[in-house]
Design brief:
single chain, alpha+beta, 5-stranded antiparallel sheet, 2 helices, elongated
Length: about 140
Amino acid sequence: MARGQKVLKLRAAAKKITLKYETTAAVEGAVGKYYPADDVVAKKGPTPVRNAPKVRASITPGTVLILLAGRFRGKRVVCLKQLTSGLLLVSGPYSMNGVPLRRVNQKYVIATSTKVPLTGVDTSKIDDAMFKREAAS
């Protein structure tokens, strides 16, 4: 018989050890920490200011970007500016490739090295409020 099989037989024939634990008795009365009632409101301090994320160095107004997600994925668009929310304002332009003015997160674009001059384009009136949906009445 092989040496390994002999060891396995001896281990199988050895007496099995079982451990028995004492059962824990239920403790009556209030034990542990005191927790206040639900109506006590803890002051959390001032809410932090959420600043817009920094835009990538490769993304500047006039940069041609490639959209990676959404309805217009794969389309090349022109970056117009960064909005106060941190999103990028991009356009196709609509007459060229059908992409309208859109807000896009910079994580979902690839910046190309191509730049387009934006002379004569006024984006000062466009902000996040323009994209807000009208309240349903």
